[in-house]
From TrEMBL:
PROSITE patterns: PA14. Residues 397-546 form the PA14 domain. Keywords: Hydrolase. Signal peptide: none annotated. Belongs to the glycosyl hydrolase 3 family. The keyword Hydrolase applies. GO terms for molecular function: hydrolase activity. This is Glycoside hydrolase family 3 C-terminal domain-containing protein. The keyword tRNA processing does not apply.
Amino acid sequence: MSPTPADFTDLLGRLTLEQKVQLLTGQDFWSTHPLPGIGLRSMVLSDGPSGVRGPVWDERDPSLNLPSATALSSSWDLAIAHRYGVVSALEARRKGVDVVLGPTINLHRSPLGGRHFEAFSEDPVLTAGLAAAYVAGVQELGVGATPKHYVANDFETDRFTADVVVSQRALHEVYLLAFEQAVTEAEAWLVMSAYNSINGATASENELLETPLNSEWGFDGVVVSDWTAVRSVESAKHSQDLAMPGPIGAWGDALVEAVRSGEVEEKAIDRKVLRLLALAARVGALEGFEKPAAVPEVDTVAFARSAAAEGSVLLLNSDELPWNASTLRRIAVIGHNARDARTQGGGSATVIPASVVSPLDGLRAALPDTEVTYSIGAVVQEGVAELPLSTMTNPETGEPGARTRFLAEDGSELFAEDRFSSALVYLGGNAPVGDTSVFEFRTTYTPGESGAVLLGFASVGRGRIYADGKLLREDTAVPVGADLGAALLSPPSISTPLDVIAGRPVDVRVELELQRSEGGLGNALSITVGVEPDRSDPQALIDEAVAAARAADVAVVVVGTNSKVESEGHDRTTLALPGHQDELVRAVAAANPRTVVVVNAGSPVLMPWRDEVAALLVTYFGGQEYGNALADVLLGVVEPGGRLPTTWPREESDVPVIDVTPRDGTVRYDEGVHIGYRAWLRAGTEPAFAFGHGLGYTTWSLSNLRASATSVTVTVHNTGRRSGKHVIQVYAERPESTVDRPIRWLAGFAVVRLEAGETSEITVPLHAHTFEYWDNTWTTEPGTFTLRVGSSVSDLPLSTELQVRAL
Ligand code: BGC
């Protein structure tokens, strides 16, 4: 039995008001206050959700980098989501983390949403199932999970202030559904309140924190704020329990004062503290309570590889894949992302993997007897990219890496360290960022190729770039927009041309002036020192790739975005692929009919050339084992296991719900319950690829559908020549209804894996709210529903009718 808040009433009685209030704000960026007198240690909270970063953002303490949430959701597999949670908890325990700040379960309302890659789906039922499985997996090992961001945090523009105007019905049926299931089914120990407002009240002061979360779903955990989202004493009157980060915040002394003056009731404080103590007991942070001793043995790197393949969606295949390795003499690997693999999106979700397998690495390793050529084809990276460790020598130690120094106003050294990366984020940790006047980065850079590079840095503030002791540029990098978090994690670049010669070392020094600033991010710094790619002659890059493709048996073009394009802190401005990637694909496909395109992006992109290529595979941000997983899929070692969790459009103008920009501070969710495929169905527009679509390497037939009010049963036959995975999808319809319902909505799903020729009878549970709608409470409209079964929202060969009675 999990400890409950009521178990700690006696302990609470031993605390003064000051002690109680202190517990309710973090002691620093990532941890809570300890109280040794009652046997309470500090609890560490960490992002998440695709791996666990730990309390420092540092390549010397790397983390497993799992495939992005969009890849996980594409598996449609609750067992994989559960495993993903278990692996996250193992990482958390390895790193001394008590609470994982995930999963992100906001919805793919618009494909432009900056954190789309970090969330699961446009469908509430699919999101809810995955959320509950992930949470259960994490918590099984005594680590808290934090479904976030409660609620309607589905876009990034003006995210701190935007007010979402949304009907109660859409809230309950769509945006709250996954939170409901994560709480009622998986008993999440925390929920994170969002930055935005919902119907006029900011999330940390919103009644939704009490109803439905507590009063209807029975949540007895901790509502932690999004970082800096607690802005007032007022929020303490609401069911907002823990304010992060600390130690400075809106509560503290002001809250003690407010309790003393009677403005805030002490029992509101007590309720929060009891929940915090219960959480501490649950994660083993309170004396007398331990985390479970037994943990499963999991090869976490192997899991990252298989999860990436399970989440890869084969959209088109003209009998091209899988490739037979023994028949490939030469393969042309093309694309910026093929070499500089994008394994994760940007923002607080970032983790630092020990190593990454790019598509190029993965294919080279898998094809030892094939000649594998590489051409960049088109530049995708914007701004400076970090220097590969193999090109950096620390001038102090002579070892690979760099030396950083933190200098006081008088030039004296406050702190120095040796690093193995030129992309550095200080957010928490020991570096005295707040007291530093100048930050200095030094490395000896030995380029691999001769030519002109753009040397520089990405950060915020005034900086100086030196090469071999000579000042090349001094300038100020100014952030776009007012989002401090975005400026920190996706900063602007300043660079200067420099001619380099392969193998000849250059002493690189960058100085950055730091400004003292108060508040949560005052002690934070992010800087990347590196080079910008040469984009001066795009046609030459395409020509080179075309020549390579022409001379090869097959070509694989890896197109995509990166962590600057898809990031927390800003929404995308276009669905088009960055740079000249569309021209590149067209040219390569024209040169070699056996061209396979791989999309390395966390969210939908436009693919105007999709009918010109032999096969099309979406791999998302594939995590650290990305390249190995891709090779497995292309060579048929495993099947691509993914089905789209979100509709992919032909044209941006076709997307029925796309807007992410507040008007007069407000985003109106006027489409109600009609988002995603529901909106496409209502608009009657054909997308490029439908929700649920995805091919494997075998064929299937479905027959003999039977339905009850709680499940459907169907016979599934693998009619092909390979073993394979099928995702059975069940949709409900209510052709004649007095309620404004979607034309069709997901009611249930199940994964089935069968050998070639095998037949099995599969029962698919239906979601508990399938036949209900929200009208102040869950309500059933009795009568006839149609249930359709198949392999995507637009491929549903079987159907049956069901009479539903009033409850
Ligand atoms: C993000 C959260 C994250 C937190 C801590 C916020 O900016 O919205 O998702 O958990 O920072 O990094």
